[in-house]
């Protein structure tokens, strides 16, 4: 009984579909117009989309299910040839992001001028990293991004 109450008190930190950057238009714009932050072995490409800008991108209105923060994880085939290695690193990146995104999410949601924050995490190293290193770099990247967003809002 006590374990069930404890589970109900904790917030679920699942990685929902609304948080995945999956629309081609948004991905193309992110890589064309986005800014980069490096923290080897990761590169973060990010872009803030305002409300009016989101409306202009789509002819028939903004599609359902676009969240305040959208993210894409990519591990280039050129860097990690084997699919099992790419899948492993993608899982590690996703888990590190999922567990460390909340402070950034709160900042984005409190800023009324941001319709969506688009991010792409790109893995740059030729060999697999352990989870601890990935998580440390992910925390640094998210902290740096939060500072940049805070600076833009002021």
Extended strand count:
4
How many domain units?
1
How helical, in percent, are the residues? 40-55%
Distance between the termini: 47 Å
Largest sheet: 4 strands, mixed
Low-pLDDT regions: none
CATH class equals Alpha Beta
How much beta, percentage-wise?
15-25%
Q: Give the overall form.
A: globular
Structural class: alpha+beta
By CATH, the architecture is named: 2-Layer Sandwich
- Secondary structure tally, helices: 6
**What is the succession of H and E elements?**
HHEEHEHHEH
How many whole angstroms does the radius of gyration measure? 17 Å
Give a brief rundown of this model.
The N and C termini lie far apart (47 Å). The chain is globular.
Question: Could you describe the 3D structure shown?
Answer:
49% of the residues lie in helices and 18% in strands. The chain is an alpha+beta fold. The protein has a single domain (17-153), classed as Ribosomal Protein S5, domain 2, CATH 3.30.230.10. The termini are far apart.
Features:
18% strand, globular, 154 residues, 4-stranded mixed sheet, alpha+beta, single chain, Ribosomal Protein S5, domain 2
SSE topology sketch:
Blueprint: H1 2-9, H2 24-33, E1 35-39, E2 42-49, H3 51-57, E3 69-74, H4 83-100, H5 102-110, E4 116-123, H6 131-153
Helix pairs in contact: 4-6, 5-6
